[in-house]
From TrEMBL:
It holds the Pfam family Aminotran_1_2. This is Aspartate/methionine/tyrosine aminotransferase. Gene3D superfamilies: Type I PLP-dependent aspartate aminotransferase-like (Major domain) (3.40.640.10). The lineage of its organism: Bacteria, Bacillati, Actinomycetota, Actinomycetes, Pseudonocardiales. Its cofactor is pyridoxal 5'-phosphate.
């Protein structure tokens, strides 16, 4: 009986062809390069690289050095179609490490974390929030940690803006063989302390994911990147290639342009978000709605005056035309809150907040 062999991958065959002494002729893909020309259209005849173009990966590595004072190897960087896509698909692509069938997520979490667990058919375990608002990993039973496939962390957090002690989080994960994935969509939007990536503590067992959306203000590009542990990055790139999870060529090219434009535009964006967030918090307080100073991020996490976040969101929309995100959407622990994003011009928000004093004192709940 002939032993089964592993089929050679396309990368291996391309490498062999490169070393053959002949100019390679690639007939491995149905690459529709002989397309009918369309006036004014971009040249999109070739498939983009799943890992990301060399230009993009080097631009990301340069950004890490310039903006975050980190040396990251471009070979350990890969592209994704935004952070949300990466969050929702990674548990599915990582599953198979028996007996690890559990994904650890924050008790208050961006909804795609939970959607991704369900999509993968895995078990969700919510990590409780401690008195300081951070994840309380000491409360995770060791028998649960032994079954954990991965740990999701957001820092600064969404919806609360909490900045996690990433050194302690990484140490916890490494001690238990649990890969730590940190959503760094708001990495430079830190208002208490210095901004910094989890990769400060080394890449072993760690992956950071970032994007053009929040820090750079280009959400329509649907382009992000992940970097860290070389083995994990390579595993995900291979799985993502087979499932067609590839950032488009135009979005990759756009990202290169944004990332190489320099730090000034990013700093300007950070200043704008900080000013809007400060004005939003002030407007809330001036009109009788308590709100703590967010330690990071671009959101105000507001306790509903009557303890019912869903009802308060309805009152804000009906009485003041302000659309908030009900805290219940981030988990049961958020039911008494609403999340307000610092995305509108300060004067416009403040004018509407004058309505909120009467709303907070109102007995009637508009449903």
């Amino acid at each position: 009986m002939t032993a089964a062999t592993t089929a050679p991958g396309r990368a291996e065959l391309l490498d062999r062809a490169d070393r053959s002494g002949w100019a390679p002729i690639d007939l491995s893909l149905g690459n529709a390069g002989d397309r009918a020309p369309v006036e004014g259209s971009a040249d999109l005849g070739g498939y983009p690289l799943c890992r990301g173009s060399e230009e993009l990966r080097h631009a990301v590595a340069a950004m890490f050095r310039r903006d975050l004072d980190l040396l990251v190897d471009a070979g350990d960087v890969a592209a994704c179609a935004g952070v949300k896509e990466f969050i929702a698909t990674t548990p599915l692509l990582l599953r198979g490490r028996e007996p690890r069938d559990t994904v650890l997520v924050p008790q208050l979490a961006y909804p795609p974390y939970r959607h991704g667990v369900r999509l993968a058919g895995l078990v969700e375990h919510a990590v409780p929030t401690g008195p300081d608002g951070r994840m309380d990993l000491a409360a995770v039973p060791e028998e649960v940690a032994a079954r954990a496939l991965m740990l999701w962390v957001t820092s600064p957090g969404n919806p609360t803006g909490v900045v996690e002690d990433l050194r302690a989080v990484v140490a916890w994960g490494r001690a238990r063989g649990v890969p730590v994935f940190v959503d760094e969509a708001y990495v430079d939007l830190v208002w208490s302390g210095e901004p910094g990536s989890v990769l400060r503590y080394g890449p072993d067992g760690v992956v950071a994911v970032q994007s053009l959306s929040k820090s750079f203000g280009h959400p329509g590009a649907r382009l992000g990147w992940f970097a860290g542990d070389p083995g994990i990055v390579a595993q995900l790139v291979a799985a993502r290639r087979e499932t067609g999870l590839i950032a488009s060529a135009p979005s990759q090219a756009h990202a290169v342009a944004v990332l190489t434009a320099g730090a000034a535009a990013r700093a300007q964006r950070r200043e704008l978000v900080g000013a809007r967030l400060g004005d939003l918090v002030s407007a809330l307080r001036d009109n009788g709605i308590g709100c703590p100073d967010p330690p990071g991020g671009m959101f105000a996490w507001v306790a509903a005056p009557d303890g019912d976040g869903d009802a308060f969101a309805r009152r804000l929309a009906t009485g003041a035309g302000i659309v908030a995100a009900p805290g219940s959407g981030f988990g049961d622990a958020g039911r008494g809150h609403v999340r307000l994003a610092a995305v509108a011009a300060p004067g416009r928000v403040a004018a509407r907040m004058a309505r909120c004093q009467s709303l907070s004192d109102s007995v009637e709940v508009l449903r």
